[in-house]
Specification:
four-stranded mixed beta sheet; alpha/beta; dioxygenase activity; 2 domains; 2 helices; 2,3-Dihydroxybiphenyl 1,2-Dioxygenase, domain 1; 119 residues; Glyoxalase/bleomycin resistance/dioxygenase family protein; lyase activity
Length: 119
């Protein structure tokens, strides 16, 4: 079994896609406001519009993105309307994580590997 893609449901998919584009993701495919898919190395991240979701209204997944610079990405997300919550957590040799709510209230975690800290 292989992970194919992860998707969030959104009432305004195109607006939410703009948020993730501004954070650095690249759209690979879009079917209007129904389905927007971003490029990924091994699996895709997608946004499903109303009626496209297998579990309409579900909001219990947490998507984790690896970033090169955690502070810079948090600052950019905040400027784009994200709500940062909780404390940035240092996980020692693994790296650091921080959580945010995107503009449509999905929980997202940002991860910076320890080998990318202090650069």
């Amino acid at each position: 079994m292989k992970l194919k893609h992860i998707y969030l449901t959104a009432q305004e998919p195109e607006a939410l896609a703009g948020f993730y584009e501004a954070l650095g993701l690249t759209i690979r495919f879009a079917d209007g406001a129904k389905w927007i898919q971003f490029a990924g190395e091994k699996a895709a991240f997608c946004i499903a519009g109303p009626g496209e979701s297998a579990s309409e209204g579900a909001r219990n997944a947490v998507v984790v993105f690896e970033v090169d610079d955690l502070e810079l990405t948090l600052d950019r997300a905040r400027a784009l309307g994200a709500e940062i919550f909780g404390e940035m957590r240092d996980m020692g040799a693994h790296g650091r994580v921080a959580c945010l709510k995107d503009p449509q209230n999905n929980t997202i975690q940002l991860f910076q590997a320890s080998n990318k800290q202090g650069g």
